[in-house]
What we know:
By secondary structure, the chain is mostly helical. It has four domains: 2-143, Orthogonal Bundle (Arc Repressor Mutant, subunit A), CATH 1.10.10; 202-286, no CATH class; 290-447, no CATH class; 480-562, no CATH class. Strand 12 and strand 13 form a beta hairpin.
Amino acid sequence: MFMNPSWWVRSYEVASSSKAPFLTPLELSCDSGLTPALNAVELSALSIVLSNIQKQLLAGRRTILLDPVQHRKFVSSTSRSRIFSFERILQILTGLRLLSGNKSEGFDVIPLFDGEAWRRKGYYNGLVIELGLAPLGAELAFGLGEPYSELERLVSKKPRAQRHLGSHGPLGLWQSIWLDLQGLEQILLLRVEKSMQWENRWLRLDGVFGNSIPELFKDLELPKARGKSSQWSAHRIRQRVLERLGRKLMEHGLLSFDLDDEYLALGPDQDDFALVWQAGPEYLNQIDASSYQSKVGVYLRDAIFEQNLPNITRVLLGPIFKAELAEELGKVWRELQGVNGMQDYRGLIHGNLPVMLSCLFFEWVIRQLPGHGFPIPASHADRDYIKLAVTSESQSVSERFEQFCNLVREDDNFLRDLEDVSGLTLVSPKTQSTSEVYRYFAELQSLGQPTIPVVERKTPTVQPPTSKPAEQPVQDSGPARYPSNLKKAATEELARLRKQVPEKYVALKNAYINTLDPEKKKIIVEVMDRLQPKTFDDHLRNSLVKYMVENPESWLPTAANQQP
């Protein structure tokens, strides 16, 4: 199966709509969320490329290799224009970018790929294309996001994959069927698959589905009738198209030949004609995408979550962050590593966020630490599987995690609780939409803790200079003479002002707040109104010290004033 991300599905529907021929390339990109604007043939070719990329990433490749000769084998037409469009997609991959936003406010542009090279293939004149992925490239190619990296991006105000993935996972399309169809039949197949995979339009539990015919053909241009059929009504033309498509789908095994219509769950108030079909048994066996989802979940855990672990840990710890505590939590995570993928994967929340039990267990270990600012909700804090995340001297982390996994698999309501219980996990959209967590994240942003970079790279091989020229301007710039250990002096002076000279402390605090942009100033004021004065001043301390170091003239006497 081709597993197509939701952004691709949207782009294909816009490119196949009846209005597409009348849109400029810029308008088509704005409506589809993809630039440069692609037609249906190019998007079909892109689907094949994405499937190839997914397989290579899951096989462990760090860079992507695309062979034009192999790609050409998927062309299902002899028309030169279609073949040209189909192959051209390989040459514009590094220019593909996704758009999020709207025409009135503008768009953020997110690239899929970063870097390209054309390599010679063997002793012949053939070439292969080598691609690198952009920061969000893997998640956008898979159609699934890494939940905790998305959380860290939300707090740090970085671009997020969720802006482009919406609330749906990838849509599976049978390769043989998709390549056997063209034009109107392809977009109808796409909508039939959406009815089964995304919209759950079940009419009976043995694989009978249905959808209204006007909805299936919405915004689509019908083929022009010729000859005897020129007098046909639009409904008769739709019926003929569906008959022809149905025969092809039955030949491939997607639809069953016989449909027992003794009972169908059709609403009594449905006025439109409905198309009813029964999926074939082979299709029903393959429509379950859990194998793909678990493999992608393991990839996202190992390649994205672990690489971003220091920043994720900072966000999860919040105001109680300490370097020593983060180091201890790193040891906890190392004990959770190496869990079998099928054992670690539990399902999806929000349609496209894989729940990896090791990552969730790690979150709950942190949120049950003393003094955490956003603890587990009281309604679930006594659950046995949550208690297992509390540090215990009698059991190792791996032993507790094994028991945790067993309990979670027996709980049929587990995924529903993660989605519906606000505050149970910080990665659920329901939790992130509450005012409490909004204020909590706003407080983290105002403190600047989650965005502090963590140095992970090794020391460069180039030897550093023996002298320290960067320190000279601090000592010799202008008439003022500032102490070399300025941060320590600022910390001590801030404590003195706060305790002994409150009016100067308030003036310093107001001066700092006035330097902020309007959005940050608004957040600071909201936090100040919510917290007790002492608590607010404690949280503001690091930011004030940083301000004092950057603006020493605001609190240190000048050299002239120091002279007798």
